[in-house]
Amino acid sequence: MGRTPRVVLTGARGTLDGLAPLLHRAGCEVREYPLLTFGPPVSWAMLDQALAQRERLAAIAITSPRAADALLARVRELGLDPASLPPVWTGLASAARLGAVLPDVRTAPASAVAGSLAVQLAEAMLAARVGSPILFPCGENHREELVVRLRAAGRRVDPVVAYRAVLVDEAAAARVLTDGDVVVVTSPRVVELLARVAPTALRPALITIGATTADAAERAGWPPARIAADPSVGAVFSAIHSLQPSLT
Q1: pLDDT over 90 for what percent of the chain?
Q2: How many helical (H) and strand (E) elements, i.e. helices and strands, does the chain have?
Q3: Whole-angstrom Cα distance, residue 90 to residue 102?
Q4: 125, 152, 179, 187: least buried by Cβ within 10 Å?
Q5: Does the pLDDT of residue 246 top 70, yes or no?
Q6: Which of 146, 165, 184 corresponds to the end of one domain?
Q7: According to DSSP H, which parts of 128-227 are helical?
Q8: Mean confidence (pLDDT) of the chain
Q9: What CATH number did the domain enclosing 137 receive?
Q10: Same domain, yes or no, for 159 and 57?
Q11: Angle in degrees, 0-180, between the axes of helices 92-99 and 65-78, rounded to the nearest 10
């Protein structure tokens, strides 16, 4: 009988809810080491001002669950009528939570171009002839694909900080590497941190979520063993499960 594979989840608490029980039932040990925590921006003023002027917006673009949660929190806090918001474009992982409150939530079609969620959303918005301006609630540190693509097509995009991400220190990150056969990483910043502290010989199998994090892993010299296509529990579980026979 093979040994029990150990899976380390590095996402912030609340990320991939429901994955750990699935892994337990599949015969894995699960370790949860959040290497990234999220908090509110220094000020909500910019986002609140943009929402106060929502009638001028052509659309809102959301590329992360944290941005989705921040948008919903401000809608509630400000007492806004959800129906007064413009169409909100997002990925499948955030569509359900946004759609439970907002009446007009749109996603990129299944036939969308390959690439990161940001690229897929930008292409879908352009195909739908979305105008300007587009509000983009995002993290303090965020990738620029959506902004670059939309601006190149002549759209005005207004990025507004909706949350901050804080990494653990390198000593805390290094401890993760000794406690798992598989490490699941949800963020480019986390994979870059782990690559800095992980000797090549001690690196466990890496599973990344999405094209952006996979690209960061490749650049850092730690190619992923598997890439989950999207940040859903099902996609990540499938990636881990497909790797499991080589770990036992």
Answers
A1: 65
A2: 10, 11
A3: 12
A4: 152
A5: no
A6: 165
A7: 145-152, 170-176, 188-197, 210-219
A8: 90
A9: 3.40.50.10090
A10: yes
A11: 20
Out of 133, 165, 197, pick the residue that ends a domain.
165
What are the structure tokens assigned to 149, written together? 């693509």
Say yes or no: 51 and 145 in one domain.
Answer: yes
Is 52 in the same domain as 123? yes
Shared domain for 65 and 159, answered yes or no, is yes
Band (126; pLDDT cuts 50, 70, 90)? very high
Nearest alpha-carbon partner for 82 in 111, 105, 58, 56: 105
Predicted local confidence at residue 115, as pLDDT: 57
* Cα(156)–Cα(143) distance, integer angstroms: 17
Residues 6 or more apart whose Cβ sits within 8 Å of residue 169: none
What DSSP designation does 242 have?
H
- Alpha carbons 101 and 22: distance in angstroms, whole number: 28
Number of other residues whose CB lies within 10 A of the CB of residue 154: 9
Same domain? For 31 and 69 the reply is no
CA dihedral 6, 16, 65, 196 (to 10 degrees): 0
Pairing of strands 29-32, 6-9: parallel
Do 82 and 146 reside in the same domain of the chain? Answer: yes
How many other C-beta atoms are found inside a 10 Å radius of the C-beta of residue 115? Answer: 16
How are beta strands 157-167 and 36-39 bridged, if at all? antiparallel
Domain containing residue 145: 45-165
Is residue 3 scored above 80 in pLDDT? no
